Amino acid sequence: MAVGVFDLLHAGHLHYLEQAKLLGSELVVVVAHDDTVRARKHEPVTNHDLRKRMVEGLKPVDRAIVGNPPSVPIYEILDEISPDVIALGYDQKHSIDSVRDGLSSSGYSNVRVVRVEGLSDDLDGTRKIIARILNLWPNEEGGPFEE
Asked: What is the set of domains in the chain, with CATH numbers?
């Protein structure tokens, strides 16, 4: 199982899911619910149904589902998926120990938690891509893109 927002899908997301797929025979991806994204990060650029559709189209993904809203306990979705392994992205803020503790207290102590490697590219994250676009955007006078 892999979990993420997947807003503005990019190569770093694909790399994360390719790495997650290598950890098992089936990859189920939980796409964060819009309300969860709002509560924990920012206003999503695209809604969770579209993000789910985009993730489903990626080759390593066998199935994608939208996660529960923040009003539902975070580990409840595991009843539906029953993962053997949870893959954390290299830049996800969750510590492996805190995820393991949460799994254990929810009755899922047999689930392995693995942090996958990041993509060795300077544009492997949504914020990095947005910063690059803004850096290349025309100046206030409407001049050419800056390199």
From this structure: 2-119 (3.40.50.620)
At residue 135, the pLDDT reads 79
Q: Which two tokens stand for residue 119?
A: 């993509």
Q: In degrees to the nearest 10, what's the CA dihedral of 124, 128, 132, 135?
A: -170
Distance separating alpha carbons of residues 112 and 23, to the nearest angstrom = 10
Q: What percent of the chain is modeled with pLDDT above 70?
A: 88
Using 50, 70 and 90 to split pLDDT, how confident is the model at 74? confident
- DSSP structural state of residue 77: G
Rounded Cα distance between 3 and 124, Å, is: 16
Q: What is the mean pLDDT of the chain?
A: 88
Determine which helix (DSSP H) or strand (DSSP E) holds 86, and give its type and residue range.
Answer: strand 85-88
Q: Report strand pairing: 85-88 vs 63-66.
A: unpaired
- What does the pLDDT average to over 3-17? 91
CB distance 106 to 74 below 8 Å = no
User: Could you tell me the sign of the dihedral formed by the alpha carbons of 126, 131, 136, 139, in that order?
Assistant: positive
